[in-house]
Specification:
The complex is a heterodimer. By secondary structure, chain A is mainly beta. Chain A has strands spanning 3-5, 10-14, 19-21, 24-26, 32-38, 44-50, 56-58, 64-68, 73-78, 87-97, 102-107, 111-116. Chain A has a single domain, classed as Immunoglobulins (Immunoglobulin-like). Classes of the chains: A mainly beta, B mainly beta.
């Protein structure tokens, strides 16, 4: 079965600084990769996704992520963080689960981002 | 489109009470899901459905039941509430087909449930 690791529980950055959130996955084949953002008290919103093709994908709100097969990683980046980016970020892997017999989405435990004005 | 809607937004239950969390989507998605979110634990899949009349267990199904009589609705039932079911519950939906099996899930705003 697939798994997702987000090594950083909490990250604090200054407004205007660059950001990189790490995500590592475990899956035998090429997975379908997603980044979601959750603002306090809200549901999850999709930032970007990778299915195939160009390994650098662009998302909403100025975010991008790069798929690196050799490192089993899908890190999220933003060149200049805004105070409104403070939220929790979840990496997710979509893959066929043979045990369940269906497509399953597995989430990491999340990284909380705090932004210092 | 309203997307995925959930009711209620908040609820407090006493131990042993029962309740149904409602979820409706208007995107004609075939897949629907229920997750619970606990602090620091990410999202855990409770139940999911691949179409009307078809449901299956996820990672943490104990203490819950679901039904899917229509494409739009996917209610989650708690029969005997326990403190361990205190959590935030999210409903989600997606569209999967033979040509496009893996698509993003759209999430509702969540239901915050406290069992005392």
């Amino acid at each position: 079965a697939q798994s997702v690791t987000q090594p950083d529980i909490h990250i604090t950055v200054s407004e205007g600084a660059s950001l990189e959130l790490r995500c590592n996955y475990s899956y035998g084949a090429t997975p379908y990769l997603f980044w979601y953002v959750q603002s306090p008290g809200q549901g999850l919103q999709l930032l970007l996704k990778y299915f195939s093709g160009d390994t650098l994908v662009q998302g909403i709100k100025g975010f991008e992520a790069e798929f690196k097969r050799s490192q089993s990683s899908f890190n999220l980046r933003k060149p200049s963080v805004h105070w409104s980016d403070a939220a929790e970020y979840f990496c997710a892997v979509g893959a066929w689960d043979s045990g369940a017999g269906s497509y399953q989405l597995t989430f990491g435990k999340g990284t909380k981002l705090s932004v210092i004005p | 489109n309203a997307g995925v809607t959930q009711t209620p937004k908040f609820r407090i239950l006493k131990i042993g009470q029962s309740m149904t969390l409602q979820c409706t989507q208007d995107m004609n998605h075939n897949y629907m899901y229920w997750y619970r979110q606990d602090p620091g634990m990410g999202l855990k899949l409770i139940y999911y459905s691949v179409g009307a009349g078809i449901t299956d267990k996820g990672e943490v199904p104990n203490g819950y039941n679901v039904s899917r009589s229509t494409t739009e609705d996917f209610p989650l039932r708690l029969e005997l509430a326990a403190p361990s079911q205190t959590s935030v519950y999210f409903c989600a939906s997606s569209y999967s087909s033979f040509g496009a099996p893996y698509n993003e899930q759209f999430f509702g705003p969540g239901t915050r449930l406290t069992v005392l």
